[in-house]
Design a protein that fits this description.
The protein is of the alpha+beta class and 131 residues long. The protein has helices at residues 2-10, 18-26, 39-53, 114-129, and strands at residues 67-72, 78-89, 92-104. The chain folds into two domains: 2-53; 67-129, Ubiquitin-like (UB roll) (Roll). It has a three-stranded antiparallel beta sheet.
Amino acid sequence: MQSFLGSASYYRNHIKNISHITSSLNKLCSKDVIFQITKERRDAYERIKHELTNAPVHILPEFEIPFKLYIDAACIQGLGEALLQREIVYGEPREKLICYISREFKNSEARCEATQTKFLFLVWALEKLHY
């Protein structure tokens, strides 16, 4: 399981909300945990496989063009964010994905109000993305 999660983690910027998806599988790697496959864990495993084989095409960032950062802090277990840029394709403006980032809530963060959570994760995303 650790090997699979390590391989999936290598592509974490290509999988939306990967920390949320892998949370049940990460628990299997803890000490003193009985390795038991549940429906939730099997579904998470299958979803990661699906996401790895069907990941959207990412673009390289162009630093002259403004970035857009979408924050989803409404999830109960964690947050997900997407970094995009507007690109002109065949004369039409389209938002193109650069990367996804995500992580699980820490205990203290799970009790924050929605507005506080969004600002907290905005700061985290800016630090993570180095912008």
